[in-house]
Amino acid sequence: MDNSGPLQLIRIESDHTFKFQKSTISKVLLQNDIKDRNIVAISVAGAFRKGKSFLLGFLLRYLRKTYQHRQVNVSEDWLGDFNEPLKGFVWKGGSKRETTGINMWSEVFLYDKGSEKIAIILLDTQGVFDNQTTVKENVGIFSLSTLLSSVQIYNIMHQIQEDDLQNLHLFTQYGRLASSEGEVSPLQDLVFLIRDWRFPYEYDFGFYGGDSFLKSCLEVRKEQASELQDIRKELSTCFDGMKCFLMANPGEKVSSDKHFDGRLNDIAPAFVDNLKDLVPKLLAPENLVVKRIGGTTITAAEFLTYLENYVTTFNK
Length: 316
Ligand code: GDP
Fold this sequence. Notes:
The protein has helices at about 20-30, 50-65, 135-150, 160-180, 205-220, 225-240, 250-255, 270-285, 300-315, and strands at about 5-10, 20, 40-45, 65-70, 70, 100-105, 110-115, 115-125, 150-155, 190-195, 240-245, 290-295, 295. By secondary structure, it is α/β, with parallel strands linked by helices.
Protein backbone atom coordinates (compact mmCIF):
# COMPACT_ATOMS: atom_id res chain seq x y z
CA MET A 1 0.00 0.00 0.00
CA ASP A 2 1.18 3.53 -0.75
CA ASN A 3 1.62 5.38 2.54
CA SER A 4 3.38 8.40 1.11
CA GLY A 5 1.94 11.87 1.50
CA PRO A 6 2.67 15.45 2.44
CA LEU A 7 4.29 16.14 5.82
CA GLN A 8 3.97 19.54 7.35
CA LEU A 9 7.44 21.03 7.68
CA ILE A 10 6.50 24.48 8.91
CA ARG A 11 3.17 25.89 9.87
CA ILE A 12 1.98 29.18 11.25
CA GLU A 13 0.61 29.24 14.79
CA SER A 14 -2.37 31.30 15.88
CA ASP A 15 0.06 33.78 17.51
CA HIS A 16 1.62 34.29 14.03
CA THR A 17 4.89 32.54 14.84
CA PHE A 18 6.41 29.83 12.67
CA LYS A 19 6.38 26.31 14.05
CA PHE A 20 8.92 23.82 12.80
CA GLN A 21 7.56 20.25 12.96
CA LYS A 22 10.91 18.86 14.01
CA SER A 23 10.00 15.36 15.15
CA THR A 24 7.98 14.49 12.04
CA ILE A 25 10.69 15.64 9.66
CA SER A 26 13.57 14.20 11.70
CA LYS A 27 12.02 10.75 11.37
CA VAL A 28 12.43 11.05 7.61
CA LEU A 29 15.66 12.99 7.17
CA LEU A 30 17.66 11.46 10.02
CA GLN A 31 17.27 7.88 8.82
CA ASN A 32 20.64 6.13 8.57
CA ASP A 33 20.70 5.97 4.81
CA ILE A 34 19.57 9.59 4.37
CA LYS A 35 21.15 11.83 7.01
CA ASP A 36 24.63 12.08 5.46
CA ARG A 37 23.49 12.50 1.88
CA ASN A 38 23.72 15.82 0.05
CA ILE A 39 20.32 17.39 -0.29
CA VAL A 40 18.59 18.42 -3.51
CA ALA A 41 15.54 20.44 -2.44
CA ILE A 42 13.04 21.33 -5.15
CA SER A 43 10.32 23.70 -4.00
CA VAL A 44 7.19 24.85 -5.80
CA ALA A 45 5.86 28.07 -4.30
CA GLY A 46 2.88 30.22 -5.04
CA ALA A 47 -0.67 31.19 -4.24
CA PHE A 48 -3.44 28.59 -3.94
CA ARG A 49 -5.43 27.20 -6.86
CA LYS A 50 -2.79 27.91 -9.47
CA GLY A 51 -1.96 24.32 -10.38
CA LYS A 52 0.97 23.67 -8.00
CA SER A 53 -0.27 20.29 -6.78
CA PHE A 54 -0.97 19.24 -10.33
CA LEU A 55 2.61 19.98 -11.30
CA LEU A 56 4.00 18.33 -8.16
CA GLY A 57 2.12 15.17 -9.14
CA PHE A 58 4.13 15.05 -12.36
CA LEU A 59 7.41 15.81 -10.57
CA LEU A 60 6.71 12.84 -8.31
CA ARG A 61 5.81 10.65 -11.23
CA TYR A 62 9.19 11.43 -12.82
CA LEU A 63 11.12 10.89 -9.57
CA ARG A 64 9.42 7.57 -8.90
CA LYS A 65 10.17 6.28 -12.40
CA THR A 66 13.73 7.56 -12.52
CA TYR A 67 15.20 7.00 -9.05
CA GLN A 68 14.58 3.49 -7.78
CA HIS A 69 16.75 1.61 -5.31
CA ARG A 70 19.54 4.22 -5.59
CA GLN A 71 19.80 3.44 -9.30
CA VAL A 72 18.92 5.69 -12.17
CA ASN A 73 16.53 4.57 -14.83
CA VAL A 74 16.02 7.40 -17.30
CA SER A 75 13.12 6.65 -19.59
CA GLU A 76 11.57 8.70 -22.38
CA ASP A 77 8.11 7.55 -21.42
CA TRP A 78 8.20 8.42 -17.74
CA LEU A 79 4.75 9.93 -18.20
CA GLY A 80 3.36 6.41 -18.51
CA ASP A 81 -0.06 5.31 -19.70
CA PHE A 82 -2.14 8.15 -21.14
CA ASN A 83 -5.33 6.62 -19.77
CA GLU A 84 -4.10 6.27 -16.22
CA PRO A 85 -5.49 8.73 -13.66
CA LEU A 86 -2.84 10.82 -11.87
CA LYS A 87 -3.41 9.16 -8.54
CA GLY A 88 -1.48 8.72 -5.33
CA PHE A 89 -0.27 12.28 -5.18
CA VAL A 90 -2.88 13.94 -3.06
CA TRP A 91 -1.21 16.96 -1.59
CA LYS A 92 -4.24 18.05 0.36
CA GLY A 93 -7.56 16.75 1.58
CA GLY A 94 -10.98 18.08 0.63
CA SER A 95 -11.79 21.52 -0.63
CA LYS A 96 -11.45 23.48 2.60
CA ARG A 97 -9.24 26.49 2.50
CA GLU A 98 -5.64 25.55 3.17
CA THR A 99 -3.41 27.30 5.65
CA THR A 100 -0.16 28.93 4.69
CA GLY A 101 2.90 26.76 5.22
CA ILE A 102 5.55 24.46 3.80
CA ASN A 103 4.97 20.76 3.22
CA MET A 104 7.55 18.14 2.36
CA TRP A 105 6.65 14.98 0.47
CA SER A 106 7.35 11.97 2.69
CA GLU A 107 9.22 10.00 0.01
CA VAL A 108 12.91 10.86 -0.33
CA PHE A 109 14.55 9.79 -3.58
CA LEU A 110 18.07 8.42 -3.25
CA TYR A 111 20.69 8.48 -5.91
CA ASP A 112 24.32 7.36 -5.75
CA LYS A 113 26.13 9.51 -8.25
CA GLY A 114 29.50 7.77 -8.17
CA SER A 115 30.86 8.50 -4.72
CA GLU A 116 28.42 11.39 -4.14
CA LYS A 117 25.31 10.32 -2.31
CA ILE A 118 22.24 12.39 -2.96
CA ALA A 119 18.79 12.69 -1.36
CA ILE A 120 16.09 14.49 -3.35
CA ILE A 121 13.17 16.09 -1.53
CA LEU A 122 10.12 17.99 -2.78
CA LEU A 123 8.65 20.98 -1.00
CA ASP A 124 5.26 22.57 -1.52
CA THR A 125 5.06 26.16 -0.33
CA GLN A 126 1.58 27.56 -0.09
CA GLY A 127 0.39 31.04 0.55
CA VAL A 128 -2.34 33.53 -0.05
CA PHE A 129 -1.61 37.10 -0.95
CA ASP A 130 -5.11 38.37 -0.48
CA ASN A 131 -5.22 39.65 3.06
CA GLN A 132 -3.14 42.35 4.73
CA THR A 133 -2.90 40.46 8.02
CA THR A 134 -1.14 37.57 6.36
CA VAL A 135 1.49 39.50 4.43
CA LYS A 136 4.22 39.07 7.04
CA GLU A 137 3.46 35.37 7.37
CA ASN A 138 3.44 34.83 3.65
CA VAL A 139 6.71 36.63 3.21
CA GLY A 140 8.27 34.56 6.01
CA ILE A 141 7.10 31.27 4.56
CA PHE A 142 8.18 32.09 1.04
CA SER A 143 11.56 33.39 2.23
CA LEU A 144 12.16 30.25 4.26
CA SER A 145 11.43 27.97 1.35
CA THR A 146 13.61 30.07 -0.94
CA LEU A 147 16.47 29.85 1.57
CA LEU A 148 16.05 26.11 1.94
CA SER A 149 15.65 25.04 -1.65
CA SER A 150 18.29 24.46 -4.27
CA VAL A 151 15.68 25.23 -6.92
CA GLN A 152 12.71 27.44 -6.13
CA ILE A 153 9.90 27.26 -8.70
CA TYR A 154 7.79 30.38 -8.41
CA ASN A 155 4.42 29.35 -9.86
CA ILE A 156 2.44 32.25 -11.34
CA MET A 157 -0.65 32.54 -13.55
CA HIS A 158 -0.54 34.30 -16.93
CA GLN A 159 2.12 36.97 -16.42
CA ILE A 160 4.92 38.31 -14.25
CA GLN A 161 3.20 41.27 -12.60
CA GLU A 162 4.96 44.11 -10.81
CA ASP A 163 3.48 42.64 -7.58
CA ASP A 164 5.23 39.34 -8.19
CA LEU A 165 8.59 41.07 -8.47
CA GLN A 166 7.87 43.15 -5.37
CA ASN A 167 6.93 40.05 -3.37
CA LEU A 168 10.01 38.24 -4.55
CA HIS A 169 12.14 41.21 -3.59
CA LEU A 170 10.64 41.12 -0.08
CA PHE A 171 11.38 37.40 0.21
CA THR A 172 15.00 37.96 -0.67
CA GLN A 173 15.32 40.84 1.83
CA TYR A 174 14.08 38.57 4.58
CA GLY A 175 16.37 35.85 3.35
CA ARG A 176 19.35 38.15 3.75
CA LEU A 177 18.41 38.83 7.36
CA ALA A 178 18.43 35.12 8.09
CA SER A 179 21.79 34.35 6.53
CA SER A 180 24.79 35.17 8.64
CA GLU A 181 26.87 38.22 7.92
CA GLY A 182 29.48 37.81 5.25
CA GLU A 183 27.92 34.55 4.08
CA VAL A 184 27.67 34.09 0.33
CA SER A 185 24.00 34.45 -0.64
CA PRO A 186 22.34 31.09 0.04
CA LEU A 187 19.77 31.70 -2.70
CA GLN A 188 20.37 29.37 -5.59
CA ASP A 189 18.22 28.82 -8.65
CA LEU A 190 14.91 30.53 -9.22
CA VAL A 191 12.54 29.40 -11.96
CA PHE A 192 9.54 31.56 -12.79
CA LEU A 193 6.91 29.12 -14.02
CA ILE A 194 4.22 31.00 -15.91
CA ARG A 195 1.01 28.96 -16.27
CA ASP A 196 -1.54 29.47 -19.05
CA TRP A 197 0.86 31.57 -21.12
CA ARG A 198 -1.23 33.37 -23.74
CA PHE A 199 1.29 34.94 -26.09
CA PRO A 200 3.39 32.14 -27.61
CA TYR A 201 3.60 34.13 -30.86
CA GLU A 202 5.55 36.79 -28.92
CA TYR A 203 7.55 34.49 -26.64
CA ASP A 204 7.50 30.78 -27.37
CA PHE A 205 6.69 28.14 -24.71
CA GLY A 206 9.48 26.60 -22.67
CA PHE A 207 12.74 28.03 -21.35
CA TYR A 208 13.71 29.51 -24.70
CA GLY A 209 10.82 31.98 -24.87
CA GLY A 210 10.71 32.20 -21.07
CA ASP A 211 14.24 33.43 -20.69
CA SER A 212 13.79 36.24 -23.24
CA PHE A 213 10.47 37.13 -21.64
CA LEU A 214 12.13 37.29 -18.21
CA LYS A 215 14.93 39.42 -19.60
CA SER A 216 12.36 41.93 -20.85
CA CYS A 217 10.57 41.95 -17.47
CA LEU A 218 13.79 42.54 -15.56
CA GLU A 219 15.12 45.17 -17.92
CA VAL A 220 15.89 48.43 -16.16
CA ARG A 221 14.47 51.34 -18.12
CA LYS A 222 15.00 55.04 -17.55
CA GLU A 223 11.28 55.77 -17.59
CA GLN A 224 10.60 53.34 -14.70
CA ALA A 225 10.09 54.76 -11.21
CA SER A 226 13.34 54.49 -9.24
CA GLU A 227 11.83 51.92 -6.85
CA LEU A 228 11.02 49.62 -9.77
CA GLN A 229 14.53 50.06 -11.15
CA ASP A 230 16.07 49.22 -7.77
CA ILE A 231 13.99 46.05 -7.39
CA ARG A 232 15.15 44.85 -10.78
CA LYS A 233 18.81 45.61 -10.11
CA GLU A 234 18.76 43.88 -6.75
CA LEU A 235 16.84 40.81 -7.87
CA SER A 236 19.39 40.16 -10.57
CA THR A 237 22.12 39.84 -7.91
CA CYS A 238 20.20 37.73 -5.36
CA PHE A 239 20.15 34.35 -7.05
CA ASP A 240 22.82 32.12 -8.51
CA GLY A 241 20.57 31.74 -11.52
CA MET A 242 17.17 32.98 -12.69
CA LYS A 243 15.16 31.32 -15.43
CA CYS A 244 11.65 31.36 -16.74
CA PHE A 245 9.50 28.64 -18.32
CA LEU A 246 6.31 29.49 -20.23
CA MET A 247 3.63 26.81 -20.02
CA ALA A 248 0.60 26.23 -22.20
CA ASN A 249 -2.96 26.11 -20.91
CA PRO A 250 -3.77 22.49 -20.01
CA GLY A 251 -7.24 22.71 -21.55
CA GLU A 252 -10.85 22.89 -20.43
CA LYS A 253 -10.99 19.49 -18.73
CA VAL A 254 -8.13 20.33 -16.38
CA SER A 255 -9.24 23.85 -15.58
CA SER A 256 -12.98 23.36 -15.22
CA ASP A 257 -14.21 19.74 -15.34
CA LYS A 258 -14.74 18.53 -11.79
CA HIS A 259 -14.61 14.89 -12.91
CA PHE A 260 -11.13 15.29 -14.38
CA ASP A 261 -8.88 12.63 -12.83
CA GLY A 262 -5.50 13.66 -14.19
CA ARG A 263 -5.26 11.27 -17.15
CA LEU A 264 -2.96 12.58 -19.88
CA ASN A 265 -5.50 11.92 -22.63
CA ASP A 266 -7.62 14.72 -21.18
CA ILE A 267 -4.78 17.23 -21.08
CA ALA A 268 -3.98 19.58 -23.98
CA PRO A 269 -1.06 18.14 -26.03
CA ALA A 270 0.87 21.41 -25.83
CA PHE A 271 0.84 21.17 -22.02
CA VAL A 272 1.99 17.53 -22.13
CA ASP A 273 4.85 18.59 -24.42
CA ASN A 274 5.78 21.28 -21.92
CA LEU A 275 5.86 18.71 -19.12
CA LYS A 276 8.12 16.43 -21.17
CA ASP A 277 10.47 19.36 -21.63
CA LEU A 278 10.35 20.95 -18.17
CA VAL A 279 10.39 18.03 -15.74
CA PRO A 280 13.63 16.34 -16.92
CA LYS A 281 15.31 19.76 -17.07
CA LEU A 282 14.63 20.04 -13.35
CA LEU A 283 15.05 16.46 -12.22
CA ALA A 284 17.18 14.40 -14.63
CA PRO A 285 20.38 13.12 -12.95
CA GLU A 286 22.63 15.48 -14.92
CA ASN A 287 20.47 18.51 -14.06
CA LEU A 288 20.11 18.04 -10.31
CA VAL A 289 21.20 21.08 -8.30
CA VAL A 290 22.61 20.18 -4.90
CA LYS A 291 21.82 22.58 -2.06
CA ARG A 292 24.74 24.78 -1.04
CA ILE A 293 24.97 27.27 1.77
CA GLY A 294 27.95 29.60 1.81
CA GLY A 295 29.27 27.71 -1.19
CA THR A 296 29.31 24.34 0.64
CA THR A 297 27.01 21.37 0.05
CA ILE A 298 24.82 20.45 2.99
CA THR A 299 23.63 17.06 4.17
CA ALA A 300 20.09 16.11 5.12
CA ALA A 301 21.04 16.35 8.82
CA GLU A 302 22.56 19.82 8.32
CA PHE A 303 19.47 20.84 6.37
CA LEU A 304 17.43 20.23 9.54
CA THR A 305 19.81 22.35 11.62
CA TYR A 306 19.67 25.23 9.14
CA LEU A 307 15.91 24.98 9.03
CA GLU A 308 15.67 25.19 12.80
CA ASN A 309 18.02 28.16 12.94
CA TYR A 310 16.20 30.02 10.20
CA VAL A 311 12.85 29.50 11.94
CA THR A 312 14.33 30.81 15.21
CA THR A 313 15.66 33.89 13.43
CA PHE A 314 12.37 34.55 11.69
CA ASN A 315 10.46 34.28 14.96
CA LYS A 316 12.58 36.97 16.65
P1 GDP B 1 -2.76 24.50 -6.08
O1 GDP B 1 -3.70 25.00 -5.02
O2 GDP B 1 -1.88 25.61 -6.60
O3 GDP B 1 -2.00 23.30 -5.67
O4 GDP B 1 -3.66 24.11 -7.35
P2 GDP B 1 -4.14 22.67 -7.90
O5 GDP B 1 -3.02 21.91 -8.50
O6 GDP B 1 -4.96 21.98 -6.86
O7 GDP B 1 -5.05 23.13 -9.11
C1 GDP B 1 -6.19 23.95 -8.93
C2 GDP B 1 -7.13 23.75 -10.11
O8 GDP B 1 -6.50 24.21 -11.30
C3 GDP B 1 -7.48 22.28 -10.36
O9 GDP B 1 -8.82 22.23 -10.81
C4 GDP B 1 -6.52 21.87 -11.48
O10 GDP B 1 -7.04 20.81 -12.29
C5 GDP B 1 -6.40 23.16 -12.28
N1 GDP B 1 -5.10 23.33 -12.94
C6 GDP B 1 -3.95 22.63 -12.75
N2 GDP B 1 -2.95 23.10 -13.53
C7 GDP B 1 -3.48 24.14 -14.24
C8 GDP B 1 -2.95 25.04 -15.23
O11 GDP B 1 -1.76 25.01 -15.62
N3 GDP B 1 -3.84 25.98 -15.73
C9 GDP B 1 -5.15 26.04 -15.33
N4 GDP B 1 -5.93 26.97 -15.87
N5 GDP B 1 -5.67 25.22 -14.40
C10 GDP B 1 -4.85 24.28 -13.86
